[in-house]
Amino acid sequence: MNTTSHSASAQTGSAKTKGTQTESTPKVFSSFAEFYPFYLGEHANLTCRRLHLIGSLLVLATLAYSLATQQWALLWLLPVLGYGFAWVGHFFFENNKPATFKHPLYSFIGDWVMAKDILLGRLK
Predict the structure, then answer these.
(1) Residue among 104, 94, 9, 113 at smallest CA distance from 53
(2) Which of 6, 93, 111 is nearest to 54 (CA)?
(3) Cα(21)–Cα(59) distance, rounded to whole angstroms?
(4) C-alpha span between 87 and 48 (Å, rounded)
(5) Could you tell me the superkingdom of the organism this chain comes from (predicted)?
(6) Which residues contact 93 (CB under 8 A, 6 or more apart)?
(7) For 62-116, how does the pLDDT look when each residue is reduced to its tens digit (9 = 90+)?
(8) Domain with 42 in it
(9) Each residue's pLDDT tens digit, 11-36
């Protein structure tokens, strides 16, 4: 493969290595039910899961407080709290890149489903 065709395939996200997924080619999921086991695999570390839960609960608390007090400026904290705790979990404990970079909608849903599953005792 010449350099030009390699660059073109990397830019389109279609680069393959011996028939396997590469880092530049995100896996395609046909449903959230298919995605969720992958998502949990990306969150195997207990500390990472706990940080996700803390971030999610802080998002809910901050949202409720902001709505109750009409302090709308606090809403800018929501992505900082939610993603901040999650990304610390990924970069320092899970040692992987957050799934949100390649699967933003399913990852957002996965955060809340995982939080629910932890709170209901379905996950550690």
Answers:
(1) 113
(2) 111
(3) 34
(4) 9
(5) Bacteria
(6) 45, 47, 48, 51
(7) 999 999 999 999 999 999 999 999 999 999 999 999 988 899 999 999 999 999 9
(8) 29-119
(9) 333 333 334 444 556 789 999 999 99
Domain membership flag for residue 68: yes
Q: Is residue 23 part of a domain?
A: no
**Separation between Cα atoms, residue 124 and residue 118, nearest integer Å:** 6
CB 116 within 8 A of CB 36: no
Q: What is residue 13's three-state secondary structure?
A: coil
Contact criterion met (CB below 8 Å) for 25 and 15: yes
> Residue ranges of the alpha helices (H) in 1-124?
3-12, 32-41, 46-69, 77-88, 104-119
Q: Is 95 in a helix, a strand, or coil?
A: coil
Q: Which residue has the tokens 């949100």?
A: 100
Q: Which 8-state DSSP code applies to residue 17?
A: B
* Angstrom distance (rounded) from CA 18 to CA 23: 13
As for how many domains the chain has, the answer is 1
Q: Given CA atoms 53, 28, 79, 64 in this order, what sign does their dihedral have?
A: negative
In a domain, 21, yes or no: no
